[in-house]
Structures are given as structure tokens and as C-alpha cells.
Amino acid sequence: MESNLQKYQAFLKTVEYGSFTKAAELLNYSQSGISRMISDIEKEWNLTLLERGKAGVFLTSQGEKLLPFIQSLCREYDALTEQVDELSGLHTGLIRIATFSSIATHWIPNIIKHFQADYPGIDYELLMGDYEEIEAWVVSGKADCGFLPLPIRSPLETIHLEMDELLVALPKSHPLEHCKKFPLKALCDDPFILPKTGKRVDAEQIFRYHQLTPKIRCSTFDDYAIMAMVESGLGISILPSLILKRSPYNIITKPLEEPAYRDLALILRSKKNASLAVKRFLEYLDYRK
């Protein structure tokens, strides 16, 4: 029964996106695997459901007539599965969350604390990575969901969470420690410690937009190492306000004269097709603060 349903789901995704490739990406199959599943249905029923061509994949008249029945069957099975999971009480399960340090430090503990109070049998795996790795893990299915700044490149579902301001981190006794807002041009006056988050670097986007050329002396993925180096007077940096909360380092933070933000969101392949544990987890995102 389940193998047939997988074939029907492959058929529905292919129809929705008009492409075997897109359906394969979303369902985490190979393109040939999706094509084979649909061919199996057609052979079993002795019907042609799809027209294949260079412009894409389209329903035949036979496919159009059967489409609503296949949609209904998959919906009913999803409802049955969800009801069974509800009755089992989510006693066990695993949620794999892809994230980066500031969210792992300041949001996820609160979310899990409240979620675990209601669902103590669920386990968690945190996958720590840069922005590109996090997106790739969610696309491939290695992670059930992930936290990322928008925009993203892949056709994933997103849940906007909040705007996180980027602040300048300065050592004590810096000449501009008393300024209300940090001048953009002053970013080029001191050695700069660059936070690396993969190919997409928040600070570099600011530099490109304002055509600035900072004196980058060091780069690292470790936000706390950056704060320690700033505290030691080795340079200045730009860090998200989220990671600067409850900072143990004796540093000063200033907003930029032209504010900059990262747009934080949760990403997942499909909210509809997510496990019940993940669906319930999404309901607890407001506990992040």
C-alpha cells in the first residue's frame, strides 16, 4: 500500500511542477526513480497519464480524469497517518535541525525546553553549519528543518521569524565608542575581523552595497573567537545582535548609520509532508525568546 502511495505522491508532484527533476528534488529521489514510479502506474493501469516532451511534462486526458481521485487518496492517507500519530501521542521521534551558532545558543534551547515539556519522548539532532550547508542539508533531507537568513536559492518553504540587526563590535576605548551610530566609512579605518558564514557573508554584503574596502586581517566561523579578538583590540567586526546577547566579552556595540539586518526564517521542504513531530515543533517557534 505504502509503495503505491509513494508512486501516487511522485505523480502528483510531477504534475504540480511539470518536471520529473523538480519532483525528484522535493521528494528526495533520483529523476529516473520518479520516472520509473510513474511508468509503473501506467503499466499497471494500462493507461498513459503524462505526456513527456522537451517543454516539460503534461497531463493526458486520462491523467486529468484520474488526477482528483489520486489527490483524494493521498489526502485521506495523510489524514489517516496524522490521526494514528496523534493517537500514539508522539511517544518517540527525532527532529534534525540545521542551524548556526547564534540561533543554537539563544533560540533553540528555549524552543526545545517548552516543546519537551509536552513531548518528552522526542529526541533532537543539531547540525551546525554555514548558510550553504544548512540549505543543502534541508534540500537533501539530512535535516528536517533549518534556520537561515533569507533569501535562499532552493524552492523550499519558509516561515519568517524576525529581522536581526547587524551591529558593529568595538573594543573598549575605541575612538568612536561614544558615537550614537557608527559611520560606514569608519569600517575601513581599523583592522576588520570578518565573520565567515559560507559564501554568503553578512558583512561582505554591506561592503559591496556601500562600495567599501575594509582592511580584513582575519576571518573565522567562530563568533565567540571574533568577540574575544575585538576585546583584545585586534580589530573591529560586524555581528548580528542575536549573538551579542548575554555576551561574556567586554566590548561595545553600535548600530550602523544606515541600519542593516538579516531576515531570519525557518526553512523546510514541505510543511504539509513534514512528520507530525516537526509540525508540532513549528508551533513552538514563538517560544524562541
What does this structure look like?
With 289 residues, the chain is of the alpha/beta class. The chain has 3 domains: 1-66, Arc Repressor Mutant, subunit A; 87-161 and 265-287, D-Maltodextrin-Binding Protein, domain 2 (3-Layer(aba) Sandwich), CATH 3.40.190.10; 163-261, Periplasmic binding protein-like II (D-Maltodextrin-Binding Protein, domain 2, 3-Layer(aba) Sandwich). It is 43% helix and 25% strand. It is built from 11 helices and 11 strands. It has helices spanning 2-17, 20-27, 31-45, 61-88, 101-106, 108-118, 131-140, 202-210, 223-231, 241-244, 276-282, and strands at 50-53, 56-59, 93-99, 122-128, 145-150, 157-171, 191-195, 215-220, 237-240, 251-255, 261-268. It is elongated and about 80 Å long.
Task: Outline the fold blueprint.
Elements: H1 2-17, H2 20-27, H3 31-45, E1 50-53, E2 56-59, H4 61-88, E3 93-99, H5 101-106, H6 108-118, E4 122-128, H7 131-140, E5 145-150, E6 157-171, E7 191-195, H8 202-210, E8 215-220, H9 223-231, E9 237-240, H10 241-244, E10 251-255, E11 261-268, H11 276-282
Helix pairs in contact: 1-2, 1-3, 1-4, 2-3
Label this structure with key terms:
289 residues, alpha/beta, D-Maltodextrin-Binding Protein, domain 2, 3 domains
CATH homologous superfamily name of the largest domain?
Answer: Periplasmic binding protein-like II
Tally of separate helices: 11
CATH domain fold name of the largest domain: D-Maltodextrin-Binding Protein, domain 2
Number of strands: 11
Number of domains: 3
**Helicity level, as a percent range?**
40-55%
Overall 3D shape: elongated
Classified by CATH, the class of the largest domain is: Alpha Beta
C-alpha end-to-end distance: 43 Å
Q: Measured on Cα atoms, how large is the radius of gyration?
A: 24 Å
Could you give the order of the helices and strands?
HHHEEHEHHEHEEEHEHEHEEH
Question: Strand-residue fraction?
Answer: 15-25%
CATH architecture of the largest domain: 3-Layer(aba) Sandwich
Unreliable spans are none
